[in-house]
Amino acid sequence: MVTIYDIAKRTGYSAPTVSKALNGTGTLNGVTRQTIIRIAEEMGYKPNISARTLSTKKSNLIGVIYDDTGMNRGFAHPLFSVVLNRFREQIEFAGYDLVFLSRHFKMSYYAHSQYRSVDGVIIINPATGDKSEFDEFIQSDMPRVSTNSLFDGICTVISDNEKGGYVAAEELIKKGHRKIAFISAPRNGISSAPIERWKGFKKALDDYKIPFDDELFVESRLWDKKGAYEAFESLYKRRKDFTAVFCVTDLLAFGVYEYAEKNGLRIPDDISVIGFDDDAADALMSPHLTTFRQDALRIADIASEMMLNQIAGLPVPEIVRCEAEFIERKSVKSLL
To answer: Residues with Cβ < 8 Å from 286, sequence gap 6 or more?
Structure first.
């Protein structure tokens, strides 16, 4: 294994000088630093991260909690994938690397973060539906940021889901719809989005003095298209008098589209549909789906800033909300 002493012997510089060059510290001139780095690369030098962690108390690693919880999307999720990639760009620019934390090694997320000696953790999409899993993070002083779920004591950067739900209902109301159904994603998971979007949706109905019939609320057993298909099927079998439906995610809206196609319903002539996420597959829907586009880049930029601020010992707000953009397409019909 090549050491800094081997590099010092080869370059003629002292070991401390070599160490400063490789670690990006000190006041070396550019030529010296680049010469040492070039020769180190030629010699096949690999930094000893474990030793560096022991000496600096920092690993320069940020742990990522990202699992697919029943969405069957992997890294193709329209929000999470963009947040992850942008966060990676920003955090690597600041000199950090990412390492994924999982629960597949029979240890908790927190235990895994300790095992990896990470300097901070970003919670993008956990596998567990049990928020108590994160109590150890909340009680620790480890820098941590969440971008999808609300945790007391953890800085969260998230879309303004309640406002999105309000706008969705308001848009339908303004187009003359009065009997509007709501398809929720599972509410027993760790994501706060279904509950918040429902809260905003219901508030809009209340503000416009439109009573909501509880029979028009249905919850998908899964986050995917199949679950939504089954949920809409059960809804439509018991009620056929509603004219519009708001789906908590585009993926759920796709289930409505599939049911409509197989059962002779026309969108938007028979049923208007609004989704949430601006999924890339929206372009393949006919008609194109009216939806909301979450500002994934802004969420990631703020999340990376909040992470770096915590590492630097600076205070951060408990929650930052980013507005989602309403995208009007062709899946909503005006009844006026």
So the answer is: none
Smallest CA-to-CA distance from 297 within 177, 147, 166 is with: 147
Q: What is the mean pLDDT of the chain?
A: 86
Instruction: Report the alpha-carbon distance of residue 101 to residue 96 in Å, rounded.
Output: 15
Q: What is the identity of the amino acid at 276?
A: F
Instruction: Confirm if 186 and 220 have CB atoms less than 8 A apart.
Output: yes
Phi and psi at residue 321, in whole multiples of 5°?
-110, 135
Residue 146: Cβ-neighbour burial (10 angstroms; 0-12, 13-18, 19+): buried
CA–CA gap between residue 69 and residue 73 (Å, rounded): 9
Q: What is the number of alpha carbons within 13 Å of residue 282 lying toward its C-beta?
A: 25
pLDDT tens-digit readout, 101-150: 876 666 788 888 888 889 999 998 776 566 677 888 888 888 999 998 88
pLDDT digits (tens, 9 = 90+) for 198-251: 999 999 999 999 999 999 999 999 888 999 999 999 999 999 999 999 999 999
